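worker-3 :: picked proton-translocating NAD(P)(+) transhydrogenase
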Amino acid sequence: MAVEVLVLRESAAGERRVAATPETVKKLLAAGAQVRVEAGAGLDAGITDQAYLDAGAQLAGADARAQADVVLCVQSPPAEAIAGLKQGAALIGQLQPQADQARAQALQARGLRVFPLERLPRTTRAQAMDVLSSQAGMAGYKSVLIAAQLAPRFFPMLTTAAGTIRPSKVLIVGAGVAGLQAIATARRLGAQVEGFDVRPETREQIESLGGKFLDLGVSAAGEGGYARQLTEEERAEQQRRLAEHIRGVDVIVCTAAVPGRPAPKIVTAAMVAGMKPGSVIVDLAAETGGNCELTRPGETVEQGGVTVAGPLDLASMGAVHASEMFARNVYNFVALFLKDGALSFDWDDELLAKTAWPEAPVVKAAEAGAA
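worker-3 :: tokens ->
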């Protein structure tokens, strides 16, 4: 019997993306799988059910979840939906099992092969499967557009009959994938852009995109492309220098993250109080608590004339292209164990072994025997 792959319709509030597109459906079929898609799964990403049918998929029936060998999703289904999945099925997506105890228990109770893609090792070979990077790019892009909309000024320099308008000064905090995309987008809009990151190796990347590297004399180079957490002394010095600098900044876009931890607080309430009225802060890190002390996740607030936005689900705002990238990432990961119409899990492959949850060799050995 062919391996059955099911594409879920997302149920999380605000989620508009989908884990497979007609393009990746064709690739899954070519790998020997039978693909079923839940009705309406791609509508919010601009993909009709007919488009999936034309690609060779079938629409999922009522029993599809209980029969699927491989289940693809963007965000984890709720615990009650997990309970209806086939025992031992493989579940792939941004699952965050540690974030919800009921979800974690449901995943383990069904004996699922769980692959939270946010756990994927950040290696050169894994880049084609890296959903964090692909989705961060969209988030960085959208964050700047939100900032431009909220700012009571032009981003580019303009020469008009009423005089010359100077360009907005934009500071991007954090130079990961999201931050670099934000720098590039702000430059395209004509702003005067600076990038700040405690990792000194990001200077070249920032400057290659037309931004100016803001050097505050603090370095926190970490592992895996992320920053380490700063010491109290380092943080105090960073805060002092940053507070002085942002008095002249018009827009701040915050993107700094530390894996597995709440977002570091970089922009304090006191710094915001020192900014010019009409200034804007867009905190892309709102989902993990925010880089700004005044950020309220999902809200836009004003404090002393400064607007602070904490948008959520930024990647979903660009659902069409975000889904295209996410689906390709997912297919590339599934291709590690779906070959010639059969599932084969090679636990010596670090991408499978380190992405799997929980990472337990005993469980893996048992699963290898079952496969």
